[in-house]
Amino acid sequence: MIAIIDYDAGNIRSVEKAVDFLGNKAIVTREAKELLSADKVILPGVGAFGDAMKRLTEYDLIGVIRELVRRGTPFLGICLGLQLLFESSEESPGVQGLGLLKGKIRRLPEGSKEEGRKIPNIGWNSLSFPTKGRLFEGVPEGSFVYFVHSYYLDAEDKSIVKARIDYGTAVDASVESGNLFACQFHPEKSSEVGLKILRNFLELPV
To answer: Which of 16, 91, 176, 188 is catalytic?
Structure first.
């Protein structure tokens, strides 16, 4: 069973549809018993870092997430779901993230008019692979995926970074550490490449 954490995030239904399309039954839940009995868990997210941490706290989900990670359940964060796994974000000063991985979420740098780089970064960017992660088995380097974000991960331990893009700075676009996986981009909106990445997660051994 695939569980998607329900904390009123914006892209939950699109993730659910993608998982179902790939032949897996997804449940959307915030019930601890259902989450802890799942084979794999996905934390999606669109919105503000501080608001998301507030909702995770209100729904008593922080302890559940920590327990899932402790048990070794394969866990995938998507977009804001990636950012929440880390320590803090410049978007919400003073708000602590889950702190499951070390690193900061920083504001994307403004671009000049000549550069044509806008904030937020909305659109397709090509991935480079510093080291190949399990999510990217069978995915060629240079593949394009879809981003919507104004803040980006600067991971403290660069060995966990499995994909990057350049957007005025090096953006750590995907990480893998043990049973923790995360993508700043939206695999559920990234056409065949995104579905392949999502399928790789769903087919991980448990």
So the answer is: 188
Nearest to 57 by CA among 114, 1, 17, 97: 97
Domain map of the chain by residue range? 2-202
**What is the C-alpha to C-alpha distance for residues 118 and 121, in angstroms, rounded to an integer?**
6
- The question of whether 188 is a catalytic residue gets the answer yes
Q: What is the pTM of this model?
A: 0.96
Closest of 100, 191, 184 to residue 150, by C-alpha: 184
pLDDT at 198 over 90: yes
Contact (CB, 8 A) for 182 and 81: yes
pLDDT tens readout for residues 63-119: 999 999 999 999 999 999 999 999 999 999 999 999 999 999 999 998 755 567 889
In tens, the pLDDT along 24-55 reads 999 999 999 999 999 999 999 888 999 999 99
Residue in 79, 149, 176, 183 annotated catalytic: 79
Q: What are phi and psi of 151, to 5 degrees?
A: -125, 155
Residue 167 dihedral angles phi and psi, to the nearest 5°: -145, 65
Omega prior to 120 cis, within 30 of 0: yes
Taking domain 2-202, whether its CATH number is 3.90.25.10 is answered by no
How many Cα atoms sit within 13 Å of 176 on the Cβ side? 17
Annotated catalytic, 58?
Answer: no
Greatest Cα pair distance, the chain, in angstroms, is 53
